[in-house]
Amino acid sequence: MSCNCRRCREQREEVITDPTRTVVNTRTNRRVVKHIHPTEVINVNRTVVRNEHYYPVYERDVYETVEENFNCGSNPNNNNRCRPFWNR
Q1: pLDDT per residue rounded down to tens, the chain (88 residues)
Q2: Do 70 and 86 meet the contact criterion of CB atoms below 8 Å apart?
């Protein structure tokens, strides 16, 4: 039954369609992953040998006598003329 009368045409409904709404349902599954990080501990037992060196010093005194010979001529009151024997 189709209504083409004026009254039916005036009563027509207008239809507006909105864009589609998207709904996302997320299901989360949890799992455990174990990470193992091995550590090696090295205990070092060290012995230090201390070598001590000593150098004893002995001290002694030596006395020397050095003689120098000069030829000073005939005047004992004037030593300006003195010359070593080896530089004549």
Answers
A1: 566 666 666 667 888 889 999 988 889 888 888 888 999 999 999 999 999 999 998 899 888 888 888 888 888 888 788 888 865 4
A2: no
Amino acid at 87: N
Helix (H, G, I), strand (E, B) or coil at 40: coil
SS3 17: coil
How far from the centroid of its chain's Cα atoms is residue 55's Cα? 39
Question: Do 72 and 85 meet the contact criterion of CB atoms below 8 Å apart?
Answer: no
For residue 20, give Cα distances in angstroms to 14, 17, 23, 24, 29: 19, 9, 10, 13, 29
